[in-house]
User: What shape does this take?
Amino acid sequence: MKIVTRATAIKNLKKYIGHDLAKLAKKFGITTYKNGKQNKGWKGLILERLAGLECNVSKAPNGLSYELKSVAFRYIKDKLVPKETMAITMINPQELKEHDFFKSHCWAKLKSIVFCAVMWHGKNAKKAELLEVGSLDFLEDDDLIKEIRADYDFIRKKLTKYGFESLTGKDGKWIQARTKGPGHGSTSRAFYARKELVKKIFEIGE
DNA sequence: CCATGATCATTA
DNA sequence: TAATGATCATGG
Assistant: This one.
């Protein structure tokens, strides 16, 4: 059993800034494409390997105390901005109903996050350089967190009142409850960080 | 089969 | 371009 602290994970990752993740994928034997389709999770898997988390493919409520995330960045008018929203964690309807924000997995993951900015080279890109690595600890009395908690409460209330099916990506100012799942009719939901929030995280984290 | 990694496709 | 919903490979 190997324990990798957050500081160590960051240190490990920083060594790879500027590297092309596609090459590392081969080295680790991670599939990036198959039958012309992309494995959308390959970057995340590689990052986890690089950080030293060799066996982290399932959810991690127990074990490590931080969350490793990658975010795609692209240029819009010569400015670097997050390309998309960032998945935070799956929504468990039961837990959402019974726990408040500071007891949720959502908060547990958000408050102690290690993020990796990855360059986005267009759809189905075969390369992706690691741009930057950072970490961030949120405080419970942070103004931003208060607003995020309000979003969480809103979503939670909606769940109680209208049911799980009523949740949509429109909910929330900083975080949203978007659909996500294996596909093929089976869909579940997850918390996503909106782009504005991703930007904030980077600003604070740097 | 489904949760998790995160991106792709479609519409406005 | 932005926003929302749908989807894919992997591993247990």
